[in-house]
Write the structure tokens for this entry.
Amino acid sequence: MPKKILIIEDEQALAKNLALLLRDDYTVETVENGELGLAKAKAWQPDLILLDINLPDMDGVEIMQHLRHAQATETIPVVVLTNLSDTDSVSRMLKAGGIEYLVKADHSLEEVAARVQQLLA
């Protein structure tokens, strides 16, 4: 059974293209906001979550705190995928429980997919 990846990202083109790259090897679901992401993570139990920080309904730190405080999702690895590269944002997300922080502008979708494969190997 393929591993499951949840992408919580409001940029639909990015989410769709990243999902297309990953679908050959994984089962991938995408959602466009934090509320849907939290519900999907709890119900679906993905093996990895790719999480944007800037979402329309809540920020990534808030989502991460919810994930880490719920028994169903507390151990799911979360990779932060965002355009925010300031040290404060990086620090806040890693302290909240992110295992890796990737800045969208610094990584191609292929590089993100390759990193996901490394993490799930």
